[in-house]
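Researcher: We plan to redesign the surface later, but first we want a full-length starting point. Tokens attached.
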């Protein structure tokens, strides 16, 4: 029997974990705490998959799941760019082996900062990579969207995608990068940088209006 006042090893471990969690949440910022919570949730979810379905996920799959969830959560919580959604948009897979990249931008006016959230999926809808690009000295929502576009094309180029489909809700920037005339807007310099990337890509298709997400397809030029 256990002696009075003496805790067994299980109780000691539980108490240590509780103290560690309290200390972690007390000392770290909201982002780190959120990542920890999401990580616990992802691990528990996949533990249940192992138990109930006999599926053992790969380490990279769990990491990608956590990153993608954080990206989507960041955009939902931090976006100050007004959006008007008049119809539901269903994700459609890209053609063939093309990668599909979805992106969005958030703008924080009081700090003059923005973040571009980017998620790349393959034809099966599986997340290949997800990331967030922060930008500083951003004065308008349009500039935040323009920088998001630049991050997307740079992102695709650096990862070596030969064929990508890009989807986002940035109508003003989309029109700017597809027009051939001189751009005199406040985002002209960023648009020029985006167009310089297009020199290495061929635009295969464009469609969109004010009520729809715009869709671009690119193929790296030979």
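Model: Full-length starting sequence:
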């Amino acid at each position: 029997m256990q002696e009075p006042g003496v805790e067994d090893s299980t109780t000691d471990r539980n108490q240590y974990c509780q103290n560690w969690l309290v200390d972690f949440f007390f000392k770290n910022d909201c982002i780190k705490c959120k990542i920890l919570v999401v990580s616990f949730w992802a691990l528990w979810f996949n533990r249940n998959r192992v138990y109930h379905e006999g599926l053992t996920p790969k380490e990279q799959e769990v990491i990608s799941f956590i990153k993608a969830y954080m990206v989507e959560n960041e955009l939902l919580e931090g976006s100050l760019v007004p959006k008007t959604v008049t119809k539901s948009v269903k994700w459609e897979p890209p053609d063939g082996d093309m990668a599909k990249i979805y992106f969005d931008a958030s703008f924080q006016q009081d700090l003059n900062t923005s973040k571009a959230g980017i998620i790349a999926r393959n034809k099966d809808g599986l997340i290949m990579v997800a990331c967030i690009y922060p930008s500083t000295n951003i004065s308008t929502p349009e500039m935040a969207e323009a920088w998001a576009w630049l991050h997307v094309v740079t992102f695709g180029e650096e990862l070596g995608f030969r064929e990508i489909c890009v989807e986002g809700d940035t109508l003003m920037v989309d029109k700017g990068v597809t027009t051939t005339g001189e751009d005199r807007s406040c985002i002209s310099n960023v648009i020029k940088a985006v167009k310089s990337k297009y020199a290495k890509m061929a635009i295969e298709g464009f469609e969109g209006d004010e009520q729809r997400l715009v869709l671009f397809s690119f193929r790296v030029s030979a």
